[in-house]
Amino acid sequence: MSEMGESSLLDQLHDLHRRLAAVRQDSQRYTSLGPIPMANDSNKIIVCSLRRCVRMLKTQRGDSWQYIPSATGLKSAIDYLGKGNTVRWVSWPGANVDESSQDGVRRRLETDFACHPVFLGHETLDLYQNQFCNVVLWPLFHSLPQRSDSRLLENFGEKYDAYCSANQKFLEAVSEIYKDGDLVLVCDYQLMALPGLLRRRFPEITCGFYFHCPFPSSEFFQMLPVREALLHGVLGADLVVFNHFDYVRHFLNVCTRMLGLESSPSRVEYNGRLISLGICPMGIDPVKYALTAKVETHVEILKRQQDGMKIIVGVHKLDFCKGIPEMLEAMEYLLQHYPEYRGKVVLYAVVRDAGRTASLQYRMLSRQINEFVGRVNGRFGTAEYCPVRYLKQSIEHSQLVALYNCADVAIVSSIKEGINLQAMEFIAAQKKSCHGVLVYSEFAGCASSFQGALLVNPMHIEQVAASVDTALRMNSTTKRIRHHQLSRYVTTYTSTLWAQRIMSALNEAAATAQEYNRLDKLDTAQLLGYYERSQRRLFLLDYDGTLVNYQSMEELAEPSAALMSCLEDLTATPHNTVYIISGRNKNRLQEWFGHLPRVGLAAEHGYWFRPASKHPSTLSTDKSPLASSSSSAMGSESVANFERAPWQCMFSDVELEWRDEVESILEHFTERTPGSLLDVKDCCYTWHFRDADPTFGLKQAKDMQLHFDQMLRDLPVGVVMCRIKKYVMIRPWRVNKGRAVSRILEYESETPYFTALDFDFILALGDERTDEDMFDVVQGSNCYTCTVGMKVSRAQYYLEGPDEVLRVLTACTSLMAADRQPLSG
């Protein structure tokens, strides 16, 4: 087949693909982009963003303001949300407004732009935006910490205080217009503290957070002195959305390493809430980049000016991550090593300063760009030829679309970027001509989706120049096919679709969160009231993480003197029965609590059991007050009267033949995971990775769990991994705290058919997944189940930590002065 015949077939295939894409696009437009459901007509969507929805400029006379609507992708997306819904912006107006003028500006913004403004003072704005957001956070989030100002830590506390103060002002602004049922969307790194502030003020709020910028790996994020505080802020949201899967992975890794949170690929458990994670890349509104009469006028002017020259375009914001010097260096290399392009190719470098030139580093970047432009034009320019046209300002929208339309090549040379909307604008503006080629950095967002682009490493100058050469020599058929591939992405993943998906995901995340029990804080006063009115009480207490802070090494987990005193006081009355149910081995529990015979013990999650000894008063047949009073004191003489119960195995019929093979594999993992520790017990094993490298330890734990799940799938043995306490436990399925509590209730019951109702007060306290089995057994109006630490749990209530647990138990002992009397027969 001749070359002409092949070209004709390719043209036909391209036309068929284009028509099919148009049909799919129309179908999707009318089926998938439905209205955003709201709770009722009075509810609204509140969008919080430092990026203003309107630009304010002083008029020439300087005595009034000019208001110019923003044309960003975010603004287009939010405009779509306004169709059928009430949308309110909470945003900085983009200019310093005198206090005397603020009321008038506020009225104009609220009336004409649905914007509730946040006014920031000049000093606060400088510290917050210029010094903290632009110089500290922005380079770090783009994995370029070396680009930060050399005085990064100078007055760091002052800069961070300004950041918190600005976020607080956004909180107050939202509070002025928020009503129950409203949806709140917080945008980008400038407002990371805001979701947490909103959650504290409005606990039932539905809030989403969108990262427009990349999220860095833990190696970079951990450089931030306030890293935990910023994470806690973001995790106040119900939904956190990113532009790319890599950023979700980084965020999960940071949450695991720095906060010790449990997570799945799409969710994080935090303070008793499930935070959903999503991937939703921002897009543009392609319609805004269509050819209009005004654009075509600018196209004709531009073509006459260039007189047949090839046009390369690079549209950037003044920033280190944009790779502007690298683009200029590639242009220099192209003209030096491909001399045939001299006088025939021109680069339009459009650079907006974005208000960042207040920083020393950004001023140095601007100077570097000026020097590059001067050098290239000096080396290769003539009186009639200027190889680089450097435009240091924003240009009119119609002129920008015309430039995109005329361009033969567009260069995106980003060193690191979350999403590049300028590339999408170029593709949309080329819809009719289809003659432009996109040279796109592999480090910019959506690179893996831009299959029609020529992907380059912007640091490899020779490769960039060679790709530009390839683009300039490409035949028209190949250009059209490549453009079709890119256009399909741009016309599918629009700003409209972004808005629809992100709000639907937010509604879904809020609904998912409501499915789980929102725990209430334990009301100590109410608990003590029930305690005081009851006659037969049972305390079921987990040990590690509940009575003491969790330690992977047993030697460091010894009970405090205050705890021992509290347990002794708690068991001084015959009305109280206390059991400690732990995963620790029986020898260790015997060492710590063996001298307290009234404290029952269950070791290894109930495999071993030592009943609580009966109080002497309950064993005495003498009902006289004298006998009662003499046996109620807890002195050394009465302790000797206790009948010390022996240890007994509660699950003697459990099969343990699997232990030898499992132990050898665990030893293998321990040898190959520095910092890990293997705890060998009679019926189970616990492999601790708390002191290992967080990432490697978790990886090894996952590998171990996967290996044992396969190996033990036909045996009655379970594998439990706890990410918070960082251990993997292998134990028989039948051995768990739920069964242990059932045996305890049976032992303590005075009837053959034991139930929790034999006690008129039960308090069960635990802090982890293994305690959920205990909470399932302890049910009833007389029962209090309480987890330690706010988390997703089947318990009814929560307490903050072991210190608060001790305070509650101590409060119970303080009510026992009138309680030390024998149980009535």
Automatic annotation (TrEMBL):
Pfam families: Glyco_transf_20, Trehalose_PPase. Gene3D superfamilies: Glycogen Phosphorylase B, HAD superfamily/HAD-like. Signal peptide: none annotated. GO terms for cellular component: cytosol. One of its GO terms (biological process) is trehalose biosynthetic process. GO terms for molecular function: alpha,alpha-trehalose-phosphate synthase (UDP-forming) activity; trehalose-phosphatase activity. It comes from the Eukaryota. NCBIfam families: HAD-SF-IIB (TIGR01484), T6PP (TIGR00685). PANTHER family: BCDNA.GH08860, TREHALOSE-6-PHOSPHATE SYNTHASE. In the N-terminal section; belongs to the glycosyltransferase 20 family. This is Trehalose-phosphatase, putative.
